[in-house]
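Contributing new records

If you add data, match the layout below exactly. Sequence lines come first and carry their own label; structure lines follow with theirs. Keep one chain per record. Anything else will be rejected by the validation script.
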Amino acid sequence: MDWVFQCNPKRYDLASELEKGIRTQGWSMNQHRDRVSPGDRVFFWQTGPNARLLAVGHVDSPVYERESPFGRHGVDIVFDCHIAPPVTRPEVLGQKALSTFGPFKGVMGTNFPIPDEDITAALDAIVEGRLVPFPTDGVPTPAIDDAQLSLDKAIKRARHQTLLSLREYISTMDPIGFEWLVRALLLELGYRDVIVTKASGDGGVDRRATLVGGRYC
């Protein structure tokens, strides 16, 4: 999978770090942690008045937990090439396939999976001829451990299979059973006084609930 990882220069000035020759670092994985895998390619986009594509790299580890002001979860990344000159926002928005993609429109977030091949192809085309590999002499890069990679893939397969099984089970539930399942979910989310009413003419039932302090935001 290909990604766009986004950063705000007011919090992290990636352009300055790249000028220092940085090759590897941890990167926040605040969204879509269940979809990222070692080896995934990443386009790095810096926001702000001088928004631009700065580099291309790859994910070099499974997701892990850490203590960081940028988020609890992260991945290791390796910068493979810097983009010289950087691709500016007007250049990006001039491409039809890119002009409607979230991060380039100003959508907030850190991690954006690229949803279709048209966007990938447009990014490849717009950086063609601008990719300058980082020198590797004397700069060690992390290696993806085979066992770690196999475990990461196995976990993702198990999660995916569990999700499919859960969807299949829910789709076969009778309406009343489904309503009681929704009741249990609402209670878990912090609702109280959750009442499941009698069955209506459509074969289903309704429920009422009061939110008195949810656990999640």
